[in-house]
Amino acid sequence: LCPCLIYGAYVFLPFDAPLLPTISARLVYTLRCAAFATFPVVLGMIISGISRLCSSALEPFGELQREVEIHRTYVSQSIQLFILYFFNMAVLATYLPQELLKLIPLLTGLFAISRLIFWLSYAISRSFRAFGFSMTFLPLLAMLLWNLYGMFVLEPENLLS
């Protein structure tokens, strides 16, 4: 489903990436796009804090209720995945040709939507969370494989420069 979503958005959404000739400009562009991917994480932190405040637990440091644990787990997993996603997007931005830089905001949007879908499905039932997690993890895996391919096959002479 992820490749279909990315391809459909790439073809049908009417925007193009700005002209970014230098690597530093591409990294700044990626950093600005990644700021939007923090929205689901920050929202999860807010909801986690509110659920902890409204929890009916008598012991504040006692065992967490299911509602509090869901949000806490979502936030910690989202932060871990965001770090991996961001570093892979930053490396990806250095290897993509100019006409494919439109993928950076599309991948950012896919990450944010996928995390929200994961959160919703995890709150409904833990058995449904695989769909949202796979929509986050599989593009991350594809970016990692492309980055390794770019580093070791396309430009092995520039591996550390």
UniProtKB/TrEMBL annotation:
UniProt key word Transmembrane helix: yes
Repeat among keywords: no
A GO term from the CC aspect: trans-Golgi network membrane
Membrane-crossing residue ranges in chain numbering: 29-53, 74-97, 103-124, 131-152
Keywords: Membrane, Transmembrane, Transmembrane helix
GO biological process, any: regulated exocytosis
Name the UniProt record assigns to this protein: TMM79 protein
